[in-house]
Amino acid sequence: MYFAINVIGILVFIAIGVLFSKRRREIRWQSVGILLVVNVVLAWFLASFSIGQTIVTKAMAIFTWLSAPIYTGISFVLPEFVNVSKMNFFTAACLPLLVIVPIYDSLTYFGIMPYIIKGIGKVLSTIFRLPKFECFYAVQMMFLGSVGSLAVSNLQLKRMKADRCLTVAFLTMSCSTAAITIAYSDMLPANLVLMAIPLNILSALMVTSLLHPVRVSEQEDVIVTLKDEETERLPFFYFFARSVVNTGRLVLIMAAAIIVVLGMVAIIDKIGMFIYPSLTLENVVGCVMYLFASLMGLGSTEAFTLGQYMGIKMMTSEYTAIVQAVPAMGHFTNHMQAVLTVFLTSFATLSTVGILLAVLRLIIDKSKNELISRNVGYLMLNGTLTSLISAGIAGLFFW
Questions:
Q1: What is the pLDDT of residues 118-127, one digit of tens each?
Q2: Quick one: DSSP state of residue 396?
Q3: Whether the Cβ atoms of residue 81 and residue 87 lie closer than 8 Å to each other
Q4: Cα–Cα distance for residue pair 260/263, rounded to 1 Å
Q5: Torsion from C-alpha of 123, 127, 132, 138, nearest 10 degrees
Q6: What's the sign of the alpha-carbon dihedral 206, 61, 346, 248?
Q7: For 337-355, how does the pLDDT look when each residue is reduced to its tens digit (9 = 90+)?
Q8: How many of the other CB atoms lie within 10 Å of CB of 237?
Q9: What's the predicted TM-score (pTM) here?
């Protein structure tokens, strides 16, 4: 019975995407169907075969190995931030971008990155019947996260139409970086954390295809290069210095957005608790999310608990929810552990909306920013549905 409810839940989440679709008649059902099937098969493969987990683990290990030198400069300037048992969020998620983004920009300058985007994008586009850049961007988020992906994609975003920029914003709500995810694997069941990474990519593409389907012609589906943007080629070191300065601004904006959003939520919670001790945004959203958690194939008690963790994550951060969930994880059923872990392993939070809007102000023009700002509700809906579908699919294979 619970398995049937889990299956029905996934279909309900997809139906919600259709119900709130901006262009229902333009939904590419072939793409949605392919993404759903591939997602289910991938979840089955990762849950049932050790080789699936080994592949994901090795891929993340390689990325971690490549990322380790990034902290050399950070450790020299701020040793007290790095040489600790657990780095703070600013050190782990923000400061590495100061190195990563200029490296990507350098690859763009020499024409290497456009070929990589074109190659990966073309393969995925052929499979999923979606634009090349959007397909590549979904994969790229797994390694760079929201700000990093936006920063290294600035050339493309400047040239794309507003509708496609909104698509990218939708996709950005569903990311989770490898570095942060690996850290979470020490707190939550590692096999489930690693499973969440590819599931979120496919779910993000599927939900975005439902909520905001965009038709892209062959002439538009191109990868922008530096030659397309500059009439005269800039000296490399001038270009590199500009990249460093711009990235520094992005890092500060990212940190500021998180501080402001979490501070505002805390103020609203304080006012609510003055009226009634349990009246907080997290609890209110948690009660609403109980309706969705009950479609995950859980008993009423676990569904209510899951809904509370969902509310905490969405209104504060996934890290806050994970810290609170860790002590109780051993008391949950296998199914509860699966859906909870996969739901929490993404950046689909109110803080991410703040980061996204703040960073995009530096990258794209006013009209595109205004379109994205008018769709804040859709951004949260997209990220939430993505997490729900990924969690629901993972839950099919853990009982």
A1: 787 788 888 8
A2: T
A3: yes
A4: 5
A5: -100
A6: negative
A7: 999 999 998 888 888 888 8
A8: 8
A9: 0.88
